[in-house]
Specification:
Elements lengths: L16 H14 L3 H13 L3 H14 L3 H21 L3 H14 L3
């Protein structure tokens, strides 16, 4: 899997023309490109950036996810953080572990 993460993929979704135009104007004003903006937002979400996760929590509240489900998600997230802290693993170490497993399985 040495090429994993290098193949370009498209992420597409529909939106209305008003929102699209306002987004393009705002990004132009801030000196950003659409691709750059969405890649950074997605990366921040996947890396659990504190500010983005706070925004996501607000979205979930507005979407009215049940409190029980939100609590379950929060407990799961806290457990994952505790495991990372307990084993003191960073992203590169985790990737190395998967590489070792892959080699042992002869993939």
């Amino acid at each position: 899997m040495p090429d994993y993460g290098k193949t370009l993929k498209q992420i597409c979704f529909d939106s209305n023309d008003h929102l699209h135009a306002n987004l393009k104007l705002r990004l132009h004003y801030d000196g950003l490109k659409i691709k750059e903006f969405f890649n950074k937002i997605v990366t921040g979400y996947l890396e659990k950036n504190e500010y983005i996760m706070n925004f996501i929590e607000e979205l979930k509240e507005k979407k009215q996810l049940s409190q029980k489900k939100r609590n379950k998600i929060n407990r799961s997230s806290a457990k994952a953080k505790e495991t990372e802290r307990k084993f003191a693993l960073d992203k590169s170490e985790i990737e190395n572990i998967f590489d070792i497993i892959e080699k042992e399985q002869g993939v």
